[in-house]
Amino acid sequence: MTSSKFPSLKGDKIIGRDGAPIALRGVGVGGWLNMENFITGYPANEEAMREAVARAIGADKAEFMFEKFLEHFFDEEDAAYLASLGLNCVRIPVNYRHFEDDMAPFTLKEDAFRHLDRAIAACAKYGIYTIIDLHALPGFQNQHWHSDNPTHKALFWVHRHFQDRAVWLWERIAEHYKDEPFVAGYNPINEPADPSARATRTAVAPAPARGGPPTLRRRAERARGVDAPSGSPGRHGWTSDDETRGAWLASGCWAGRSASSRPLGQRPSMVAREAHGARSVVHARPGRASRGAL
């Protein structure tokens, strides 16, 4: 049995670092690095909540309060507890605002990874894989509050600037974690949606000659630095409707159209990594790509 630094796929099985097949069982740490009101109990999106608190108690105290919130929400004791339950995977939703500022696009914050690094290290200590989920994108990939959207318009799909920022951000994330064996996957766009159907037209239109929807394809190719494959998960031996085999291998990225006829927001969205030489795993969860357990 051959061991590997990174998890990989062999046929229809996910292979762990020890060379043995594994089943990823876990939960999502929601409400933390992307605050959601139904989890953390406030009547707004995260940006509006932060602004309201700053007005009420002052900017310095608000910054201190939210930093302590981030510091204590998830720590090593939580990772130990999850491991004690027999779980081996944690999905971590994150907000793009932790990495860059709207007034300084394409500039990585100095402390961008401090909390994410800490959580990934704590989980790794107890043998828990992590999946990084970009839950709120620049310009907002859906019209709802859980993408930290105060406008109810999914502007990500109609402004190239926002799309380029998302590509740039995934390049930074992929580079930062390229050598981290316990980062098992990436969820590049959580719950993409737009009631005007612009997002649907962008993402499910017939694939161009080289394969893949233009917006998602640009993100895939630039983040990985290689050509993304064309075709459906089924073409690669996977079905998006099989609960036990909801993953597929395609050189590290979903760039083709789904084998399923579900709307985009209900398609597999857990895309794992092959960035800058990292081994490739694609873990696509069947059903609605949403908050909560994997």
Strand ordering within the main sheet: 4-5-6-7
Order of helices and strands: EEEEHHHHEHEHEHH
Shape estimate: globular
Specify the helix fraction band: 25-40%
The first-level CATH class is given as: Alpha Beta
Q: How much strand?
A: 5-15%
Cα distance spanning the termini: 28 Å
Structural class: alpha/beta
Question: What's the total number of strands?
Answer: 7
Architecture per CATH nomenclature, i.e. the level-2 architecture? Alpha-Beta Barrel
**Global Rg:** 18 Å
How would you describe the overall organization of this protein?
It is a single chain. The protein has a single domain, classed as TIM Barrel, CATH 3.20.20. Residues 203-214 and 223-294 have low confidence and may be disordered. It contains 8 helices and 7 strands; from the N terminus they run ββββααααβαβαβαα. The protein is 30% helix and 11% strand. The longest helix has 17 residues, at 160-176. With 294 residues, the protein is an alpha/beta fold. α4 (76-84) packs parallel to α5 and α6 packs parallel to α8.
